[in-house]
Every structure is written in structure tokens, then in C-alpha cells.
Amino acid sequence: MNRLEIDEHLTETKRKITAQKEVVTSLETQLLDVAARGDAKEVVAMKKEQTAAAELLGGLELVLKSFQSKSKDFTEKLEPEAAKIRKRLADELWPSALAEYDKLEALTVELQPIVEKITQLNNEMAVLTKQHERLIGDKIYTPRIPILEVWYVAANTKLDSLPKSLDIRLPAEREIGRQDRLKQEHHGSAGAERGRFS
Asked: Are residues 19 and 115 in the same domain?
């Protein structure tokens, strides 16, 4: 269970507890009203209902304590470990990967003229070999310089540019940022509309 799910369960359980407290309070009031009317059977039935509602409230409060404990564990134990992972990804691994990617990009740029030159030389040698054969009717053996298909592909591949930093925000943090941007855009466009009509 992740932090977002724990928070959702906490919120939902608190909502249920508030609603159940209102039910218990209402039943206590009704129980007093029934007792005032003097109907013992109705008092017993109402007492059972009130007891069941109170037990359900107690159960919900235990559930809340369980989720609060999970939330505390998450905050004290799991989140610091997860933060270390995010920090290592952002501060160590991603920059190292970018450095290697830059090397690969440089190799790709260097590879293209080399592959083109070898291809050109292979073609010229093939033409001259045929010309030689036409001239005197004798073949000569001219090996081709082998170029792997993957080199052609690499030489003609444009590598994408990558972000210089890694976004390690949690989904909840991204959502908060998105909401803030939407509010700013809304206020900015609303201000522009007011300015247009004033």
C-alpha cells in the first residue's frame, strides 16, 4: 500500500467515524425518548441498536488507529528509504547515464562520415574492378570493407535530447504542481478577460 492509498483510507475512515458518531448520538437521544414513553420492549430493541452502532464506531476507530500506524511507519521508515532511492536516481545515476548518452551521441556523429567514406571507397573499388575486367577480360579480387547493418542504422539515427535532470516527484506532488499551474493559468486568463472588458 502506497502513501496515497494510506491517506485515502485515513480520510475515508475519518469521514465514516464522523458519520457514525452522529448515528450513535442520534440513537442515544432516541433511546431517552423511548424510555420516557415507558415502553420497555422498545427500550430493549433501541438499546441493542444503539450498542451495535457504538460497537461499529469502536471498530472504525480501531481501523483508523491501524491506518495511522501505517502512515507513521511510512513516514518514519519507508519514506526516508524511498527518498534515498529518488536522490540516488536524480543525483547519481541519471547524470551518469546522461554522460554515457552524450558519448554515444558523439560516436554516432563521428560514425556517419566514416560509414559514408567506407561505402564510397567500396563502391569506387567495385567500379574499378569491373572496369579492369572490361579492359583486359581478367578479374581481380578486391574485397569489400564489411559494414554491419547496425552501423548504417546507428550512423543515420538522430538521438533524442534528454532532460538534464530527472523528475523524481511523487504522483501526489506532481498533481499539486499541476493544480497550482491550472490555478495560475485560470487567474491569468480571468485577469486578461477583465482587462479586455473594463
From this structure: yes
Structure letter (DSSP) for residue 160: P
Same domain, 86 and 101: yes
Tens of pLDDT, residue by residue, the chain (198 residues): 777 888 899 999 999 999 999 999 999 998 888 888 888 888 898 899 999 999 999 999 999 999 999 888 888 888 888 889 999 999 999 999 999 999 988 888 899 999 999 999 999 999 999 999 999 988 898 889 999 898 888 888 888 888 888 888 877 777 787 788 888 887 766 555 554 444
Query: Are residues 98 and 177 both part of a single domain?
Result: no
- How far, in Å, CA of 153 to CA of 112, rounded? 10
pTM: 0.53
When divided into structural domains, the chain yields a total of 2
